[in-house]
Amino acid sequence: MSQYTDKELLNLYFQGDNKNYAFNLIVRAYQQKLYWHIRRIVIDHEDANDVVQNVFIKAWKAMDNFRGEAELYTWLYRIATNESLTFLEQKKKRQHLDIQEAGKQLEADTHGFNGDKIQLKLQQAIAKLPEKQRVVFLLKYYEEMTYEDMAKVLDTSVGALKASFHHAVKKVEEFLQLD
Amino acid sequence: MANNLHNNDELREIAPKLFSLKKENPYKVPDGYFDELPMLIQERIGGAEVNPSAWTRIFALIVKPQMAWGSLSIVSLMIIGWLVFQLESKNDLSSQDIAEVIYHGEVDNMDEYLLIEALPEESTFEVQISENATDTKDVMIEYLIENEIDELEIVDELTYI
């Protein structure tokens, strides 16, 4: 957990003497949250490691243009989500492997997956959701993000997000109920 | 929190089994990963100072474009020479060939115009044609610029044609 608020981090960055140091604090404050959000989307650790680094590099390059119109929290999540979805798209093209297949491979991945049978089933259910719906589900279920913040992250209306989450939950529940 | 209560009530009603599950993280991460990650990122950032002095900025504004144009000219000549050689020695310059050149970093600066020149005729792009575009090359350049497509995106596009 960071000892600094987002406002303090941004002040340190824009008004401090050492932007590198300030950005390092931002990385330390957000690395775990963003990593796990990305990991739940891309599933594989190596992929998540690549994406999370790219996210922070992108954020670093764009920091000087970040003028606080958005919150740091939603801005970083937005970059992370977009990078994850772009990564999946590119992986799909290169390897002809979509995330549903990756979800099926979870069972074989004893090094990356640490959950019990029902958790495995839940992750497989989530992997079956359409991409954007999956992101909505992950942000709401795991991150407990408000719909208002999610709207900033995904650039979608609150109403659409509520509907999307509702459908996602129903689909996941149906899958969990299967024997 | 009100939002969480709303979340839990909704779950309880439509997804009792999902609601009954403990919300846990089922994935593993290598030991020490989060200690190393900030250092990996710092290495990639390179420790470069982001906020240069005014003199550095003036220098960059005046000198760097000239150096860039010089480099671009030399590299462009090299690309043209290579492409002409390729065109003369083969019937077709395949998309894969172009992608290989770009992807393996043989080209540091890419002029989109040269790349378009080398593309096979049958390559297609979805473009929005502006009033001023008079030929397909202008249209393609406009598309690349407006959509901020960099060379890696072009590599992807060419690889899967």
Tell me what the structure shows.
- The complex is a heterodimer of chains A (179) and B (161).
- With 179 residues, chain A is an all-alpha fold.
- Chain A contains nine helices and no strands.
- Chain A has helices spanning 6-15, 19-42, 45-62, 72-95, 99-105, 117-127, 131-141, 147-154, 158-177.
- In chain A, helix 2 runs antiparallel to helix 3, helix 5 runs antiparallel to helix 6 and helix 7 (131-141) packs across helix 9.
- Chain A is globular, with a radius of gyration of 17 Å.
- The N and C termini of chain A lie far apart (40 Å).
- The model of chain B is unreliable at 1-6 and 48-53 (pLDDT under 50).
- Chain B is mainly α and 161 residues long.
- Chain B has eight helices and no strands.
- The A-B interface holds A 19-20, 23-24, 27-28, 31-32, 35-36, 39-40, 43, 45, 49, 52-53, 56-57, 60, 63-64, 90, 93, 111-116, 118-120, 122-123, 140-142, 144, 146-147, 166, 169-170, 172-173, 176-177 and B 3-4, 7, 10-11, 14-18, 21, 23-30, 33-34, 37-38, 40-42, 44-45, 47, 49-51, 156, 160.
Compact description:
By secondary structure, chain A is mainly α. Chain A is built from nine helices and no strands.
Q: Extract low-pLDDT stretches of chain B.
A: 1-6, 48-53
Order of helix and strand elements from N to C terminus of chain B: HHHHHHHH
What overall geometry of chain A do the principal axes of the alpha carbons give?
globular
What is the first-to-last residue Cα distance of chain B? 51 Å
Biggest β-sheet of chain B: count, sense, barrel?
A: none
Number of strands of chain A: 0
The quaternary organization reads as heterodimer
Q: Helix- and strand-based class of chain A?
A: mainly alpha
Could you report the average pLDDT of chain B, rounded to the nearest whole number? 66
Query: What is the number of strand segments of chain B?
Result: 0
